Amino acid sequence: MASKYQLSDDFYLKLSNKYDSAIKGEHILFNGDSAINEIEKIAITDENDNQSNTTATTTTTTTTIDVQSTLLKSLMHRPEIGTKPKIESSQNSNPFLKPEPELTIVDNYNDDEFKIVFNKFPVVPRHFMLITKEFKSQNTPLSPSELMATYKILQALKNQNQNQNQNQNSDQNTENWFAFYNCGPESGASQPHKHIQFMTLPSREQFKPYAETLFQNKEDDEQQQEPQKIEPKQNKDLPFAHFFIPIVADDVVDEEELPNLFSSILQKTLTELRETEQTHISYNFIMTLNYMLMIPRSKGKYGGDENKDEDEDKDKLGINSCGFQGLILCKNQELFDLVKSVGPLQILKDVGLPNSSHKTTTEYDY
User: Fold this and answer.
1) Which of 60, 66, 110, 323 has the most CB atoms around it within 10 Å of its CB?
2) Which residue range or ranges hold the Ap4A phosphorylase 1/2 N-terminal domain (predicted)?
3) What would the pLDDT profile of 76-85 be if each residue is shown by its tens digit?
């Protein structure tokens, strides 16, 4: 019996063909050919104190992480929460409840709980979303079925892309997909209707997410542990709070294991939001086949005039999960220049919360 999460064997092909058709029909607004991408290699210094019976020494190592800044002017047309009156969950005001066959990839998924549709304002080609068919709030945590559906979609993308390359005798590398969820009013979410997004990263020859760079050794070690014994990690050399946890081998991933991993980093995130006295619950969540990453947020945008309201101030840089995956998205030249002058890590620090790796965890956290 086929799993309710199983996608058709031609899902990846359908995704590609449908995207080409939507672009040709101008149902998707994407000026990818005019996008400007700049990848910055940022050195992260790690100082470790080494103690022995007779001496104490400090070892300094430097790791380079990648951050890509993108100038993509078609993002100017993308709606943002806070730039207009609150969107209610009605057929007239909620774009996700409107039938849009030209953007729909899979109309019924997981016993009709979800549908899979393209993002009308994509960041990269074939940028798509998993959305709930009935209205659910973007301010709520991901459910077990939402996590499992996300994982199975990522799995299908990887496997079918690999199979296509083999069948075509292509020497292209397998695409590096990730999923993300912007939760809460200060997370950078663009719609209040619950949606999880899927995108490809730049090629591995050019770009590697900092989660893979900074946690690779720890992830390798923990693959040997039982899943319930793996604890969330935070790298002390990044300026913002973040919680990383690896996903172990495919054969133990199920509807119980994924929520357990998610809950462990959500607990850390909620503790940080509470202890820093935030008046909202907002965070970014990133998921691949190999790990989960969660970042608590203090605010949704960087810069601009604090005395202006959202409609008046066009000088603020919106940051969502992509930013904390190392992908800074700018909709105009002024914001692109701002990132270069201020620095990506300073911006992420400002919209996140302070790194808390020095804190001692207790059983009473959240």
Assistant:
1) 323
2) 51-206
3) 766 665 443 3
H helix runs in 223-295, sequence order: 257-275
The ranges assigned to domains in the chain are 11-45+63-351
Q: What's the CATH architecture for 11-45+63-351?
A: 2-Layer Sandwich (3.30)
Angle value at C-alpha 256, between 150 and 260, nearest 5 degrees = 85
Q: Give CA 187 to chain center in angstroms.
A: 11
Helix axis angle, 344-351 to 333-342, nearest 10°:
100
* CA atoms within a 13 Å half-sphere pointing along the CA-CB vector of 58: 4
| Mean pLDDT, rounded, for 54-68 | 75
Residues 6+ apart with CB under 8 A from 38: 68, 69, 70, 340
pLDDT band with cut points at 50, 70 and 90 for residue 96: confident
- The yes-or-no verdict on residue 93 having pLDDT over 90 is no
At 214, is the pLDDT very low, low, confident or very high (cuts 50, 70, 90)? confident
194, 134 Cβ separation under 8 angstroms: no
The structure tokens listed for 76 are 């100017």
Residue 319 carries which side chain, given as an amino acid letter?
I
Rounded CA separation 97/127 (Å)? 19
In the predicted structure, residue 218 carries a pLDDT above the cut 90: no
* Helix/strand/coil for 287: strand
Could you tell me the pTM of the whole model? 0.89
How far apart, in whole angstroms, are the C-alpha atoms of residue 129 and residue 194?
A: 10
Taking 90 as the threshold, does the pLDDT of residue 318 lie above it?
yes
Residues 108, 20, 76, 85: what is their CA dihedral angle, to the nearest 10 degrees?
-20
Task: In whole angstroms, give the CA distance from residue 22 to residue 308.
Answer: 37
DSSP 87: P
